[in-house]
Design brief:
Layout lengths: L1 H21 L2 H13 L6 E3 H7 L3 H11 L6 E3 H10 L4
Antiparallel strand pairs: 1-2
Bound molecules: calcium ion.
């Protein structure tokens, strides 16, 4: 009986683990990228942070405006994620 319980626990942990790792690994990558741009870890990206983190600072203003869907001057993770999801695949 003890063995069965151990096995059940192992199966449950395995299932949980595979569910977690299956949960959109691409989004995790984007989250890491978002956090690397969000220098003050405020949960949003300002134009200053975006420009600083951009490989093309002279284009950053226009890119920022496209990503900042509600035009409040901050890029939230949802907006950042949406911009990645609508970007053409390379
Ligand atoms: Ca915004």
């Amino acid at each position: 009986m003890k063995n069965n319980k151990t096995l059940a626990t192992a199966v449950a942990v395995t299932l949980l683990g595979s569910t977690l790792s299956y949960a959109a690994p691409r989004d995790d990558k984007i989250k890491i990228q978002f956090n690397s741009i969000d220098l003050d870890k405020s949960g949003s990206i300002t134009l200053e942070e975006f420009t600083f983190g951009s490989s093309t600072p002279n284009l950053a203003g226009g890119q920022f405006a496209k990503i900042d869907i509600d035009q409040d001057g901050l890029i939230l993770f949802d907006e950042f994620l949406a911009s990645k999801n609508r970007a053409p695949r390379k």
